[in-house]
Amino acid sequence: MTTELEIGLYIFMLAGFLGYHLITRVPPLLHTPLMSATNAIAGISLVGSLVVAGADYGPVSTILGFIAVTCSSTNVVGGFLITDRMLKMFKKSDEEAALQSRAQVGRRILVASAILVACLIAFLYWSPQTGEVNGSTVQGKLPTEVLKYSYIVSAALFILGMKGLSSPKYARRGMHAAAFGMLMAVVGTLFHPEIVNYKWIIVGFIIGSIVGGTMGLRIPMTAVPQRTALSHSLGALAACLVGVSEYFRHHGELSKVVMTPLGFEVVVGGLTFTGSLMAAAKLQGLLPGHPITYRGQNVFNLGLLGVIIASLIYLVVMPPAPTLFYVMVGLAFVFGLLLVIPIGAADMPVVIALLNSYGGLADASMGFVLMNKIQIITGSLDGTSGFLLSLLMCRAMNRSAVNVLFGAFGKIKKEEEGAAVEAKGSVRTIAPDELVALIDGIRSVIIVPGYGMAVAQAQYGVAELAKVLMKRGIDVKYAIHPVAGRMPGHMNVLLAEANVPYDQLYEMEQINPYFGGADMALVVGANDVTNPAAKYNKNSPLYGMPILEVEQAKSIVVLKRSLRPGFSGVENELYYNPKCMMLFGDAKESLNKLFAALKS
Ligand code: NAP
Q: Residue 95: pLDDT band by 50, 70, 90 thresholds?
C-alpha cells in the first residue's frame, strides 16, 4: 500500500463523514436541489476526462476522453444551471427585494473573483519556473502549483456549497461558490503537464455545454427527476470510459493497487450508466413505468452480480486479461439494465438517489486510479449524499431499500388493487359553489398538496387561491409531507415555482399539531400521505408511514378525479369520513371552477 493510497483513503473517509454531517442538515424543502447540486458536483469526472482527452495517450484514449469530456460537461453545466433555477424560486414572503440586491452583490463578487483567478493563472503560466507533477519535471510554467492550489480551493468551495444547502437563505450563494470551485478545478486541470492538445477538450466542452445548458434552462421542473437520471448516466459513462482508457493504455499491466479501484470504477460506472438511462426512460414514459418481472429474476440478477465480482477479483490478481476485462464491463452494462427493470416508475426517485451514490463512488474510484484528491473528495461527498437521501426517502415511505430494489412494489400493488377497492360507507361530494359557501364561514385552512397537483399543474391555481383566502383574512398554511409527489421536496419546488413563500410551507411534524384547530383541510391531489389507515391498520402496506393528520380538521375537502388509489394502490378511508367532501375533477379545472364561483 503506497502512502498516496493511504492518504487517498483517509481523504475518502473524512469527506464521507463530512458529507454525512452536511447532508443531514439539508431540510426536506431542499432535497430536490440537493439531488441536482450533487449531480453537478459529480461532474468532477470532467477533471480526469480532460487529462485523458488532452494527453498524448494514443487515438483510442483521446476518443474515449473526448466522449468523457462531453458527458461530464453536460453534467456540470446542466446541473448547476437547473439547481440555480430551482433555488431562485425559494423565497420568504418579505425577502424578494432583499434577495435580488443580495444576488447582484453576489454576482459582482463572482465576476471579480473570476477575473482575479484568471490574472493569477496568467501570471503563473508565464512565470519561468520548474515544477513536478506525477514524478515528471516540467519547465516553463507552474503546473504543480496551479493544480495543487486550485484543487485545495475547489474542495473548500464544494464543502461550502453543500453547507449552504442547509438553509434556503444561503443555498444559492453556496451553489455559486461550488460552481466557482468547479471552474477553478477545471481551469487548474488545464495546466496539467500531460495535456498537450486542447482541440478535443474544447470541442467536447462546447457540445456538453450546449446540451447541458439547454437541459438546465429549458426542462420543466416536473421533469427534474428524469434530467437528474440522464445526467447521472452521463457522469457514470465518463467515469467508466476513463477507466477503460487507462486499462487500454497500459495493456492491463497495472498494479493491484491501481487495478482494484479501476475495476470498481468501470463496473460501478457501467451499471450506473445503463441503470440511470433506464430510470430516465421510465420516468419520461419512453418505457413502461410498471415493474417488469419474471420468475427467478432476483436469483438471476444476483448470479450475474456474482460473475462480475468474481471477474473483478480475478483481474485484481491477474490484471493483464483484456478479454475478461471487456466482458466484465459489458456485463456491468447489462446488470444496470436488469437492476432497474423490476422497479416501478414511482420508485425511481429512490433508485435515482441510489444511482447518484454509485456515480459518486465511481468518481471517487477514478480519483484513486488517477490519484486525484479532488475527485476522491467530491466522489465521497456525492456517494454519501445519494445514499443518505435514498435512506431518508425509504424511511419516510416506511419501506426498506431492499424492498424498493427487489420488491417490485407496483406489481404487487396492481394485484392487490381489486381487493382493495371496496366501499366502506357513503362518500359526500361538494360542488364549487357549495365550497364557496363553506369558505365564507372559515378562519383557517391547511392546504395539503400531493402528486395530483403536480399532474394537473395546479400549483399556480393553489397559490392564487391561497392569496384570495388570505385577502379574506383566512389563515393559510401548507402541509408538506416528505414523500408527497414523486421526488423528495417535489411539492416545495412546485410551490416555489408558483411563488409561494417558503415560510408558509410547514413540514409534517410542524403542521400536524395544527390540524385539530383548522377549520378546513384542503387536499389537492394528495392521497397516500393522508390515509389514516397508515396509523392503525397493520394489514395496510402503508402501515407505519407517518401521515398528515388531515382527519383532525373540522372539515376536509379533497380535490381529485375519482376514488382511485394513489401510488401505494391502497384505498383511502379518509374519503368515507363524514367530515370529508370530494370535489371530483382535474385539480386545475376544479380550482378554475372555484374561482369562477368565488367571483360570482
Ligand atoms: P398519491 O398517493 O400517489 O396520490 C395522488 C392522487 O392524485 C391520486 O390518487 C390521483 O387520484 C390524484 N390525481 C392524479 N391526477 C390528478 C389530477 N389531474 N387532478 C387531481 N388529482 C389527480 O400521491 P401523494 O399523496 O402525493 O403520495 C405520494 C406517494 O408516492 C406516496 O405513497 C409515496 O410513498 C410515493 N413516493 C414518493 C416519492 C417521493 O420522493 N416524493 C418517491 C417514491 C414514491 P385520481 O386518479 O382519482 O385523480
A: low
Determine how many CB atoms are found less than 10 A away from the CB of residue 513. Answer: 11
**CA neighbours closer than 13 Å in the CB half-sphere of residue 10:** 7
Q: Report the DSSP beta bridge partners of residue 480.
A: 507
Predicted pLDDT of residue 430 = 95
Gap between the Cα atoms of 157 and 178, Å rounded = 5
* Ramachandran region, residue 569 (left: φ > 0; alpha: ψ -120 to 50; beta: rest): left
Other CB atoms within 10 A of residue 255 CB:
11
User: Closest ligand 1 atom to the C-alpha of 562?
Assistant: 47
Residues forming the active site: 528
State the first-to-last Cα distance of the chain, in angstroms, to the nearest integer: 79
pTM confidence score: 0.82
Cα 567 to averaged position of ligand 1 atoms, centre (Å): 6
Evaluate whether 23 touches 161 at the Cβ level (below 8 Å). no
Q: Using one digit for the tens of pLDDT, what is the confidence trace for 204-228?
A: 999 999 999 999 998 888 788 888 8
Counting from 1 in the atom list of ligand 1, the atom nearest the Cα of 487 is: 40
Give the pLDDT confidence score for residue 88 in this predicted structure.
86
268/252 Cα distance (integer angstroms): 19
pLDDT value of residue 437: 93
- Ligand 1: which residue has its CA nearest to atom 42? 486
CA distances from 324 to 284, 307, 314, 579 (A): 35, 11, 9, 66
| Per-residue model confidence as pLDDT tens digits over 284-319 | 888 887 788 888 888 999 999 999 999 999 999 999
Distance (Å, rounded) from C-alpha 220 to C-alpha 201? 30
